Predict the 3D structure of the following.
Amino acid sequence: MALRRQMLTVTDRDRHFTVDPHVLIFENSSGSKSLVFASYIGIPEAVQAVTASFLEGRVLHYGPIQFERMDDPYRRLERPIGMGDVTHGSVFNSLMTIEGIEAFPESQKLDRSYLIAPDGDIDQVLSKHLIERFGLPREWEDQYPFIFGDDLVPLQIIHNPEFPMWSEIRAVVFTGSEASVIETIRGSLKRGELIIPPSKVHGDFDPTWSMRDYMLNNAVHMAKKLEEKAPRHSMNLSIDSSIAELKRIPFPTQAHMIQAVVNTLEDENPACGGDMGTGKSIIACGVTHVLHERKKRRGSKRGTAVLLSAPGITLPKWKHKEIEGTIADVKVNILRNGNDALKLLREIRSGYRPTGLEYTLVGIDRAKLGSEGYFSGIWKRMRGTKEEGRGTYAWHCPDCFEPLLVKNGAGDYEPAVWEDVAEDWEPSDEQLQTAREHKNLQANGLPGRFKVAWKRKNRIENCSARLQKEEKEVGESELASKDCKAKLWRPALKTRGETKIRPRVNISQVLKRTKKYFDLYICDEGAPCLRQLSA
């Protein structure tokens, strides 16, 4: 629907901010208008104020229409336009994105997601949403809009005619959950509305089979498919001449394996496996040498940076025997601690790039060691509980100061008590009172130098106070801690007596900041990495 030109406004204390709306998408729920998406422009201060005010729960005004935010988390986008004197801003419900849907508690049961088609082709947006969110086959992409048409509820849209972009925009609510989508597909197959397309793959399947039965009954079919796939390299083909330049000449089988891995790297990341002593190390060194020589032949002036992770005890052997003993004119650095990693990061950010083949070695047993964690929640009495005696204590968020919530055995949310975070005893009333009298009560509500053994499993990582709706007695009802998501863990400080370990840097986190500096990554002993989810 189209209205006369009006401004989107918000009042923050005694100030009034106004922006030009571009698109406003909303739904009517319980008599109020819940804003799903808003796009607007204005001076930077006004755009930032409108965005922040809405996320804090204030009402946006568009003429006689008032927009409220929903209980769901929202996201924001702001970017300057032109010379920077004008800013474009937008806020949108996180259920517009797959990432936001997957972050929703029990997302498989969620029966609400918001779809927007700027060009008006809502059918295409629906099909892509179903394929990406539920993994439905792409072969039925054109039929999904017809099958799931009853699960779409149109949203109301206000489009500013002075901004021609997105003039055909359409938006809907998709009300299907994972269970209902599967049931709809099953029903469409039974009714013949969906037909499984023919395939060249021939095989046998019985729902009662185990995986072993399936593999045995389809061994011939899978062997035929493997025969159709061209190998990356064959023993009768030539190999790169630079392999002969290695200081240790590999056996013929190892040389052909080097060539096969090099060819595979053009399309995907390979894994090289074999028994001890079969030459996996010399193959890895040979691959890096061939890749570097290929770059030189193509005229590249930049060297080749290789990151290799291996058990820490084997790093000296890797450096002196395997790498320097196999490749000539190679530089090898070992990251022994976080300070070495930070030094490398500073050099990279200062413009350092290798001129030749350069290895950086890191021990997998130290790569993810970081500072000891310390819970940053606040232990204090809950509001309204000091009527009699001690009152009720709970953990609170350090940013929004609302009680953190955890699920009980019945699946309901309740305030997090001491045992939800720590394993030992909580401070007594006497300890707290003594700390107050001696002005030794810390900001987290615990007495100074109070020893706490934090739980290592099932931690509360981020603020969870937003999971419960509370009514505040200040003007209007609003959600407590909407979209707070404050991180609740920080490094323990030795100066405060929180740990006996001096601060240390997580090497893996530092290496992530090197971005595209490394050309190749080699993982020795990859199985333990995958098993421990530390690769």
Confidence is low (pLDDT under 50) at residues 469-481, 531-535. The first strand starts at residue 8 and ends at 12. DSSP finds 14 helices and 21 strands in the chain.
